[in-house]
Amino acid sequence: MKKPYEQEIVDRYVYDVVRRLPQVQRADIEKELRTLIEDLLEERAAGGPCGKQVVDEVLSGLGSPALLATQYRGADRHLIGGEYYDAYWWILKIVLLCVGAGTVIAAIVSFFVGLPVSDSFDYSRYFTDWLADNIQTVVSALALAFATITIAFAVMERCQAKISMGGGSWTPDRLPQVPDRKEIIKPSESVISIVALVVFMVLLAVAPHLIGYWKVVEGSLQVISIFDLEAWPRVLPLLLLGFALGIVQEVVKLVKGRYCTTVAAVTAAVNLVSFGIVTVVFGCMPVWNQKYAQQLAAELQKTFGEHDLLSIWGEGRFTLLLLGVFFLAYALDTAVVFYRTFRAQRRPV
User: Fold this and answer.
1) Are 281 and 240 in contact (CB under 8 A)?
2) 124: Cβ–Cβ under 8 A, 6 or more apart, which residues?
């Protein structure tokens, strides 16, 4: 059953204020704000009916939900705060934990990868050098993860604050609808995506040589890398940019919490730029170890048939196939987000 305008517009106003506040404040402030609005409506109506005009006047008198939320928070000078802080702090802890654990594991693996077996080898010196190098690697990885998440949230907060608080006088008809269950983006989906993107980004930055085929030679672990490590310094910055854009996209989803035009626009823009990046990286740059298929075939003592993916490794067909997979993934992601946004926008008021 459709709500009366008066009840529906008050719900939308309260929702737009409360969603901008830290989670711990929301329940108390929602109750306080509803009580305040009820008192103002009774006072303005003076015993008469609370029609559309009365409700609009009361809400206009309270002002923009963005500004009112700022007053409830008590301070507006911060790097990351308000509706962003809880999500930021929650994700930052998860990401730092995963990145820290991942880089420590990668460091342990790299220790055994480079460990020779010899009676004359100076194991003490090897361990000391490995420890010094990998302490720096772990610290650098954590700093990269911290900077990526912090910058993404800080930029999004500044952009959203500019949109919310700028441009003309505020009126109740600018209020967003309270989302129903089908319009909500589950926070867990964005969190998992952000963690995966950051962990893989750090892995590519600090240990690309560990991605490939592992083998044991005379008691020493060795890796046949799938990447051209000599060209990696040129390739890595573009890959990191692509992952950073993906993180920004997930931050937008997490903060908005629902399918809307902002989420759709950011998704389309990020996917378009990301596809451009992967086209340049995989189509024009020496990403792959061109001898990987031959080295793997020699190691496994087999010949790859025409139906094996490795039989076209490094060829133009392999690149076209890879770019086709990326194109379909980006196109599908964009189409799904636009469809859900369109369905949410068509929901009757």
Assistant:
1) no
2) none
Give the pLDDT confidence score for residue 276 in this predicted structure: 95
| Cα radius of gyration rounded to whole Å, the chain | 27
Structure tokens at 214: 């592992």
77, 99, 131 - which closes a domain: 77
> CA torsion sign, 268 to 235 to 142 to 102?
positive
Among 15, 33, 1, 20, CA closest to 177 = 15
Contact 138, 100 (CB under 8 A): yes
On whether the CB atoms of residues 56 and 171 are closer than 8 A, the answer is yes
Total domain count, the chain: 2
- Of residues 95 and 110, more confidence is placed in 95
Which residues, 6 or more positions from 206, have their beta carbon under 8 angstroms from its beta carbon?
103, 106, 137, 140, 141
Residue 169 is predicted with a pLDDT of: 64
Q: Read off the amino acid at residue 169.
A: S
Pair 144, 205: CB distance under 8 Å: yes
Q: Which residues pair with 216 in a beta bridge?
A: 221
**CA 176/CA 165 separation, integer angstroms:** 14
Across 60-71, average pLDDT: 80
pLDDT tens for each residue of 253-307: 877 778 888 899 999 999 999 999 999 999 888 899 888 888 888 887 777 766 6
Backbone angles phi, psi at 338, to 5 degrees: -65, -40
- The residue length of the chain stands at 349
Measured over the CA atoms of residue 69, residue 74, residue 75 and residue 78, the dihedral's sign is negative
Domain region containing 211:
78-345
Same domain, 216 and 255: yes
Q: How far is CA 156 from CA 89, 162, 186, 187, in A?
A: 15, 10, 19, 17
Higher pLDDT, 110 or 17: 17
> 205 and 291 share a domain?
yes
Together in a domain, 46 and 123 = no
| CB contact at 8 A, 67 and 161 | no
Are residue 149 and residue 278 in the same domain, yes or no? yes
Which pTM does this prediction carry? 0.65
